[in-house]
Design brief:
By secondary structure, the chain is mainly beta. The chain contains no helices and 11 strands.
């Protein structure tokens, strides 16, 4: 079992930055690919970015590529999402998710992730 807790959300003006953290407890993060998803009001949950268990592979959706950076520290059981140049359309609840996978390919669909955090709200004002 992996328990995930997100933090770092908040209110920021457009163009600003936030750093989200995802703390894992329970099992080691070795062997777990991680992803960040987000859900805006009235919209479906969408994949934002993912990172392989080793950190060697990452993937970003086009809308955040070049602005967001995912990273991980397996020794500390932490995953991070650095968000720069934030836009109002980035406003959403952001979720950290984990799936057991030793391969480098990043999964982008929510159902394949077995473990989820409770989410953290990010609000970007214009």
């Amino acid at each position: 079992q992996v328990q995930l807790v997100e933090s770092g959300g908040g209110l920021v003006q457009a163009g600003g930055s936030l750093r989200l953290s995802c703390a894992a407890s329970g099992r080691t993060l070795n062997g777990y690919a991680m992803g960040w998803f987000r859900q805006a009001p009235g919209k479906e949950r969408e994949f934002v970015t993912g990172i392989s268990w080793s950190g060697s592979s990452t993937y970003y959706v086009d809308s955040v590529s070049g602005r967001f950076t995912i990273s991980r520290d397996n020794a500390r059981k932490m995953v991070y999402l650095q968000m720069n140049s934030l836009k109002p359309e980035d406003t959403a609840v952001y979720y950290c998710a984990a799936r057991y996978s030793w391969i480098d390919q990043i999964a982008t669909t929510a159902p394949v992730y077995a473990y989820w955090g409770q989410g953290t709200q990010v609000t970007v004002s214009s």
